Every structure is written in structure tokens, then in C-alpha cells.
């Protein structure tokens, strides 16, 4: 009976986490409360990397109007997120710590196709971005529901909503340039890979991923 309830909860939650195959370990939210400085530092650098990655895509695919057009405002938004998180640190008398090695993002990059057609490489680059947005969204959702501090719950709710929108933009861009069946087939492989990766990675409260 209790297993049945757990299964039902899992499926309801899955619908809210943009197709991800693994829900974040519930211990994670508790671990994040050990050091808000560490959490906000890691979060700030995630936002910086999101902005930088969008700029790189604009540079690489400047001949594809929709990529340039859709990603220009996301660069501004992600940089705005970086500023918001840094302001939060400052307000609390905390410091922005150094950027750390991002094991999660590096493992995703390793899974990207290097050879193959321009289309296949573009697809993987867009799906990598979609996946990072989806997982970030899921993590922010966890924080927005699980933290005790009401201010921080609302703080993270705003990020959750914004990253969900970005996830959709990256998926839509993929569907614009690549046949739909190919997008969903490859997305399925990415989701599989990401769930295995999440399973292998240590649960750390000083990391967004
Ligand atoms: Fe963001
Ligand atoms: Fe984002």
C-alpha cells in the first residue's frame, strides 16, 4: 500500500519536472541549509555559465536567425539572475566564492556527439541546454517547496519559473531545425543518461547539480 502511494507521488511529481527520469534525493534540500553562502555561490556561477553558453551559441550559429533572436533575451535574463544571486549574498554579508569544477555539466558535455552532421551536433547542444534548464528548474522547485525560510522559498520560485521557460525555448529551437521524431528519440537518450549520472553523483548541499 505505502509503495503504491509512493509510486503515485512519483508520477505526479514527474509531470512537474519536465520529463526528468529521476527526482532529486529528498536529503538534498536539507543539505543545502548547511551553508547558504556555498549554495548561493554555486547558484551564481550556474547562472553565469548559462549566460555564457547562450552567448557561445549565438556566436556559433549566427546564421540561424531564431537562435540569435530567442537567445539574446535569455542572455540578459541569465545575467540578471547572476546579479540577483550576487545581490543576495551581499545583502546577507556573504561572499561570492570561487567557481568550482562542474562535474555534472562536464559529464553532459562528454555525452555530446563530436562527429556527425551539423544538425546532430546542433541537436545535442540544444538538448544539453534544455536538460540543464530542466534539472535546475527541478532543483529550484525542491528549494521553493522544502526550505523553511519563506523569503528563500519565494526567491527560488522565481528562478524555477524562469528556467522552465528556458527549457521550453531550447526544446522548441531543436524542433524548429530538426525533425520532430529525431528530437524526441535523442531527448529520450539524454534523459536516460542524465538519470544514471544523477544516480552516480554524490548528493551535495553546496551544489545546485
Ligand atoms: Fe537562470
Ligand atoms: Fe535558464
TrEMBL record:
<protein>
    <submittedName>
        <fullName>tRNA-(Ms[2]io[6]A)-hydroxylase</fullName>
    </submittedName>
</protein>
<dbReference type="InterPro" id="IPR010386">
    <property type="entry name" value="tRNA-Hydrxlase_MiaE"/>
</dbReference>
<dbReference type="Pfam" id="PF06175">
    <property type="entry name" value="MiaE"/>
</dbReference>
<dbReference type="InterPro" id="IPR012347">
    <property type="entry name" value="Ferritin-like"/>
</dbReference>
<dbReference type="InterPro" id="IPR009078">
    <property type="entry name" value="Ferritin-like_SF"/>
</dbReference>
Amino acid at each position: 500500500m505505502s509503495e503504491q502511494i509512493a509510486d503515485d507521488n512519483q508520477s505526479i511529481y514527474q509531470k512537474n519536472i519536465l520529463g526528468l527520469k529521476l527526482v532529486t534525493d529528498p536529503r538534498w534540500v536539507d543539505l543545502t541549509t548547511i551553508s547558504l553562502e556555498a549554495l548561493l555561490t554555486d547558484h551564481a556561477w550556474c547562472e553565469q555559465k548559462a549566460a555564457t553558453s547562450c552567448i557561445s551559441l549565438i556566436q556559433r550559429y549566427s546564421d540561424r536567425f531564431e537562435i540569435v533572436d530567442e537567445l539574446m533575451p535569455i542572455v540578459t535574463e541569465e545575467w540578471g539572475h547572476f546579479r540577483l544571486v550576487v545581490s543576495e549574498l551581499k545583502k546577507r554579508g556573504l561572499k561570492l566564492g570561487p567557481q568550482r569544477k562542474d562535474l555534472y555539466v562536464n559529464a553532459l558535455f562528454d555525452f555530446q556527439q563530436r562527429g556527425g552532421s551539423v544538425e546532430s551536433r546542433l541537436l545535442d547542444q540544444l538538448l544539453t541546454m534544455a536538460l540543464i534548464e530542466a534539472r535546475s528548474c527541478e532543483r529550484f522547485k525542491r528549494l521553493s517547496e522544502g526550505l523553511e525560510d519563506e523569503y528563500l522559498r519565494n526567491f527560488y520560485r522565481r528562478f524555477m519559473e524562469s528556467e522552465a521557460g528556458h527549457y521550453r525555448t531550447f526544446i522548441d529551437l531543436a524542433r524548429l531545425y530538426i525533425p520532430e521524431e529525431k528530437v524526441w528519440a535523442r531527448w529520450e537518450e539524454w534523459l536516460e543518461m542524465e538519470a544514471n549520472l544523477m544516480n552516480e553523483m554524490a548528493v551535495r548541499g553546496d551544489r545546485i547539480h
